[in-house]
């Protein structure tokens, strides 16, 4: 579960978040939608304990991000579009490196690596160095690293950026499956059709304000349109 | 502590697999140090030897026969020139000697051709000294005096320095400088990639979001940097020792042998030197970590780190000229960086004293702690992590 209440954050004099609140239950995919600079990445970085909020609270899997950062991090898996991998290590070495931080060692670690291999189909690339992998395979290893410890909460920030059609489809299918397992997913994107496909609930984030938070049906009926994109534009226009 | 080791292991494996880095920081110092250190001296020594043995022409004018003989006995071939000065300027000879107004003038392009003309001028001066000595002896004899009146007493200097200081040679005096260089090279190979490199490749964010303290991450990276700093230092010092051994044992030239020098420290001295160098390496690595973390890219990190070289070299320049005056002040052993060079210098010369050693180690350890704290703080600072 993710609970965000009155979150504020400024960079110098520039406000990035102006008191946003939302809640994501287990088994839900929450789409945090907005254009570049809306505050999506800042929100996810606060949830990942990488950025401290100026005001408000955020809890991940029941842990406060300020008071219990290590527990929060242990409950999270993170994927973002700009992420890379250690190019001189193999996929298996990268998974082992991160897995150990989550208490996975020995046979348990091997079992989890086999599990993510089965889920994502990494195959022979597991034993190949990253420098020798295709971009699609790299993205699979990035996702594998995020879910290796089966975190209750998964944060995805523009995760399909730069992916080819196959890798993008595999990722979206994986998110849908992960939700079915009762996990909580926060999916940040500015590609609204993508959010329409996989999100149960969405939040419209614009210039640091959460203009709307609710189900897709609620968004469509509130803004009188079938298109999530049009609904977002209407919400942003009304707010201005 | 396990997390520290895992981070260190990841950095070490990653660096070890980078063939360019290994070639530059492990193999190059081993292979190139003997060449850098002793090849120019060997080359110069060889030239000097061949010049000493070779009969070289020297332009002369109006010289007495006895002096001409002395020039010949100093392996010079006097060649009479009407204008000896011009002969030098036209590079027909490297030096000229002429009688002038009751004295002698040596012509040579000493500034323009210092090495080549220097060898000939030295031989000419030897011949003149001998000629002067003979003239004085003859005049004293004519006056009924013995030549010993000119030397009423003998002066002898006895070097009371410890044997370590006497034998140190270039190897000893340059060791602190090269250690600094090797430590920087080795630590940089790991640290820049582990900080600014991680930022640039987009791997840092997920590492910092793992359930491990940022101090442990910084400590792991420090450990990896330290290991490579030690490896590079061992490789570089091995290269330096190979060159020194060659200079000592395989050259007949005594100047080359003393240039080689040796580190006769004994087990205790070597272990003190190792601890001092290790603490220094930890301090440098922690500083590099803090600075590297601040940079946004690999290139920017290199730009920030370059001035650090200057800062590290400055105390060494001061010590080159003033170590003798400064070694007795205990408080100087508390000054970071400076204290390490001073202590190494004293250890190599066999003159280190326990209180100075203790102050140096404690001060360096404290600086390591502060630098590591700064690095860990940078790993947790959003302004540093997401600086753009």
Structure commentary:
The complex is a heterodimer of chains A (240) and B (388). Chain A is 40% helix and 26% strand. Chain A is built from nine helices and ten strands. Chain A has helices spanning 40-47, 69-74, 91-101, 106-120, 135-147, 165-180, 192-198, 216-223, 228-239; strands spanning 2-11, 14-24, 29-33, 55-60, 63-64, 76-80, 153-157, 184-189, 201-206, 209-215. In chain A, the strands form two sheets. In chain A, strands 6-7-8-3-9-10 form a six-stranded mixed sheet, with helices on both faces. The model of chain A has no long low-confidence stretch (mean pLDDT 91). Chain B is mainly alpha-helical and 388 residues long. Chain B folds into two domains: 2-45 and 163-385, no CATH class; 54-150, D-Maltodextrin-Binding Protein, domain 2, CATH 3.40.190. In chain B, 72% of the residues lie in helices and 6% in strands. Chain B contains 16 helices and four strands. Chain B has a four-stranded mixed sheet with strand order 2-1-3-4. Chains A and B meet through helix 2, strand 6 and helix 3 of A and helix 1 and helix 9 of B.
Task: Give the tags.
heterodimer, A: alpha/beta, Rossmann fold, 6-stranded mixed beta sheet, globular, B: 388 residues, mainly alpha, D-Maltodextrin-Binding Protein, domain 2, 4-stranded mixed beta sheet
CATH 4th-level superfamily of the largest domain in chain A: P-loop containing nucleotide triphosphate hydrolases
Integer average pLDDT of chain B:
87
The first-to-last residue Cα distance of chain B is 32 Å
Strand-residue fraction of chain B? 5-15%
Helical element count of chain A?
9
DSSP, total strands of chain B: 4
Give the oligomeric state of the chains in this entry, treating copies of one chain as homo and distinct chains as hetero: heterodimer
User: Per DSSP, what share of the residues of chain A sits in E-state strands of 2 or more residues?
Assistant: 25-35%
The secondary structure category of chain A is: alpha/beta
């Amino acid at each position: 579960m993710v609970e965000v209440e009155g979150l504020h954050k400024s960079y110098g004099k520039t406000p990035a978040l102006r008191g946003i609140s939302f809640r994501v239950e287990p088994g839900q995919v929450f789409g945090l939608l907005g254009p570049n600079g809306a505050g999506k990445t800042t929100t996810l970085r606060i949830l990942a304990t990488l950025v401290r909020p100026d005001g408000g609270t955020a809890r991940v899997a029941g842990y406060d991000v300020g008071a219990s950062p290590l527990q929060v991090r242990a409950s999270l898996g993170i994927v973002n579009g700009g992420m890379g991998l250690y190019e001189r290590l193999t996929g298996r070495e990268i998974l082992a490196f991160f897995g150990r931080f989550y208490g996975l060692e020995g046979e348990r670690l091997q079992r989890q690596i086999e599990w993510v291999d089965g889920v994502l189909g990494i195959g022979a690339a597991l034993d190949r160095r990253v420098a020798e992998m295709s971009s699609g395979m790299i993205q699979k290893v990035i996702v594998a690293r995020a879910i290796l410890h089966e975190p209750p909460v998964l944060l995805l920030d523009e995760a399909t950026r730069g992916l080819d059609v196959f890798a993008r489809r595999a990722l979206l299918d994986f998110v849908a499956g992960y939700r079915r397992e009762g996990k909580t997913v926060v999916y940040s994107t500015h590609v609204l059709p993508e959010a329409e496909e996989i999100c149960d609930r969405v939040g419209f984030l614009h210039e640091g304000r959460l203009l709307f938070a609710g189900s897709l049906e609620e968004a469509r009926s509130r803004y009188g349109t079938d298109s999530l994109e049009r609904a977002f534009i209407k919400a942003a226009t009304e707010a201005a | 502590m396990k997390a520290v080791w895992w981070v260190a292991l990841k950095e070490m494996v990653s660096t070890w697999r980078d063939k360019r880095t290994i070639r530059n920081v492990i193999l190059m110092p081993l292979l190139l140090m003997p060449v850098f250190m002793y090849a120019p001296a060997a080359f110069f020594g060889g030239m000097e030897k061949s010049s000493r043995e070779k009969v070289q022409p020297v332009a002369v004018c109006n010289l007495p026969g006895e002096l001409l003989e002395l020039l010949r006995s100093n392996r010079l071939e006097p060649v009479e020139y009407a204008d000896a000065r011009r002969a030098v300027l036209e590079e027909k000879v490297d030096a000229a000697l002429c009688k002038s107004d009751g004295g002698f003038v040596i012509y040579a392009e000493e500034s323009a051709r210092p090495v080549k003309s220097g060898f000939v001028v030295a031989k000419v001066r030897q011949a003149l000294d001998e000629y002067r000595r003979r003239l004085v002896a003859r005049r004293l004899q004519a006056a009924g005096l013995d030549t010993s009146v000119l030397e009423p007493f003998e002066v002898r200097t006895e070097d009371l320095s410890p044997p370590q200081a006497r034998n140190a040679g270039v190897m000893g005096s340059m060791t602190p400088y090269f250690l600094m260089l090797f430590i920087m090279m080795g630590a940089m190979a790991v640290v820049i990639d582990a900080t600014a490199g991680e930022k640039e490749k987009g791997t840092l964010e997920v590492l910092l979001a793992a359930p491990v303290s940022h101090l442990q991450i910084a400590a792991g990276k420090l450990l990896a940097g330290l290991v490579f700093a030690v490896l590079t230092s061992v490789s570089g010092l091995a290269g330096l020792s190979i060159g020194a051994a060659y200079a000592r044992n395989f050259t007949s030239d005594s100047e080359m042998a003393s240039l080689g020098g040796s580190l006769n420290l004994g087990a205790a001295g070597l272990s003190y030197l190792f601890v001092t160098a290790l603490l220094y390496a930890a301090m440098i690595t922690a500083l590099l970590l803090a600075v590297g973390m601040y940079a946004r890219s690999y290139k920017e990190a290199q730009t920030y780190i370059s001035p650090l070289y200057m800062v590290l070299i400055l105390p060494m320049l001061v010590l080159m000229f003033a170590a003798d005056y400064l070694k007795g002040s205990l408080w100087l052993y508390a000054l970071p960086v400076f204290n390490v060079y001073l202590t190494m210098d004293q250890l190599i010369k066999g003159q280190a004293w326990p209180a100075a050693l203790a102050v140096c180690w404690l001060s360096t350890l404290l600086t390591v702690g502060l630098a590591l704290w700064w690095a860990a703080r940078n790993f947790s600072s959003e302004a540093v992590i997401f600086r753009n």
